[in-house]
Amino acid sequence: MLENGEYLSPIEGRVNKPQKANRELGIDTGFISGMDELAGLVPDFKFSYIRTSVFNTPFKVEMPAWLTKGEVQTVMACIFGLLSIPPTICFPVNLDIVDKVAKVPR
């Protein structure tokens, strides 16, 4: 559905909301009854999907809810730029580098 370099407009994440409030919207996720107070501890966020290569399917990107539209565009442009270098990789280069550098000793 997405062409190379395209991403969806960010959507409000709802997994950090009370389950009762989400069910009113027809969404079956969120904190269950008795744990509603935890909802205030998890920051609000939004998410999008971006396609970075014709070789990969789009993947989910989560970001703070307080980012402006311009900041979201910058974040997505950076992600696209980083992932355009090695087109057969389906995850951010930063994670690849961390995985190579941070080894757990035996």
Rg over CA atoms, rounded to whole Å, is 17 Å
Question: How many structurally independent domains?
Answer: 1
Poorly predicted runs are none
What percent of residues adopt helix (DSSP H or I)? 25-40%
Helix-strand pattern, N to C?
Answer: EHEEHH
The largest sheet is: 3 strands, antiparallel
Order of strands across the main sheet? 1-2-3
Shape: globular
Termini separation: 44 Å
Q: Tell me how many strands there are.
A: 3
Q: What is the averaged pLDDT score?
A: 81
What is the SS-derived class? alpha+beta
**Separate helix tally:** 3
Beta content comes to 5-15%
Quick take:
With 106 residues, this protein is α+β, with helices and mostly antiparallel strands.
Ordered list of secondary-structure elements with their pairings:
Layout: E1 11-12, H1 19-24, E2 45-50, E3 59-64, H2 69-84, H3 93-101
Structural description of this entry:
The chain has 106 residues and is an alpha+beta fold. It has one domain. The mean pLDDT is 81.
Distinctive features:
3 strands, alpha+beta, globular, three-stranded antiparallel beta sheet
